[in-house]
Amino acid sequence: MIPKSGNRLSDKIMRPQDAMSLAGAPSQPQEYLRSLSRWHPLEIAFWLATLLPFFLFPTYLSLASQIAVAALFALSLDIILGYAGIVSLGHAAFFGIGAYAAGLFSKFVWGEPFSGLLIAAAMAALIGYLTSFIIARFRHLTLIMITLGLGLLLAEAANSAGWLTGGSDGLQGVKIWPVFGYFKFDLYGTTAYGYSLAVLFLVFLAVRRLIHSPFGLSLRGIRENWTRMPAVGADSRAHIRKAYTIAAAIAGIAGAVIAQTTQTVSLEALSFERSADVLVMLVLGGAGRLYGGLVGAIIFMVARDQFSGIAPQYWYFGIGILLILVVMLLPNGILGGLAKLTARWSRK
Q: Which of 3, 11, 38, 253 maximizes the CB count within 10 A of its CB?
């Protein structure tokens, strides 16, 4: 029988539950999934702590809103990388599609922010679905090159279409209406952080439900051995296409939020650097762990802010040192290291 380990912190937050662990364990997957879906008190504490910037760091709310967007973007990549094992170096393509879709929609059609989120998610999901037929056919180095090429292709297309996107000058004139007709986006970042945090939490709830479902278990099985999953009734390519489309939609939402809160869109939204940054966030926090992208985004964005304050031209040097230390000392990310400590402590 599968042990009910859902009350342990390492199970709920830090340790990815392998679908392959079901092999050899009989017959109660429903109870297993229910144990995973239970909320741990530290999860509740984590989300309550996200409200602290309103009271403790009111001058850093703009940074906090960028952290929330980065966490949402990292969460989207974690679905395909951490759970399905699909390595992507062009995930910023969907972030940029969402940003430009929301920006253009608000500039020329309708400035209501939630409508912009839906448009951005739909556009990114459409492109993600179309490209998923290519992604599902390849693995490893070929897949890395394909995703990198798609990302660079879209970035160059946006740069060439300056009449629409603004080119290297960026998309200007984005006008976002107040949230619910009352909360205006301002320079202080109060509305921006509240809006970003609310979107992050709602999307996180959906992803949490997805990961703790039979579909989520199938993704873990594909990550471990995608050629054998059809033997247990899971079409690996179909599942990859679904996961890739969902991840693209969430990345598009993240891009829409950054466009709405800053009221501008630059080519950087589609850049390789953004794809690399979100990958670093997952490595820092721990890929394949539900909170890994969120924790990694917090660490990366705060470190970048501090390092750029010390040496504006060389802040990547500090990030590089941090990344090397984490990879050498905590190869499974910070949450992976904490999971090991928790496991050792529980055995004592």
A: 253
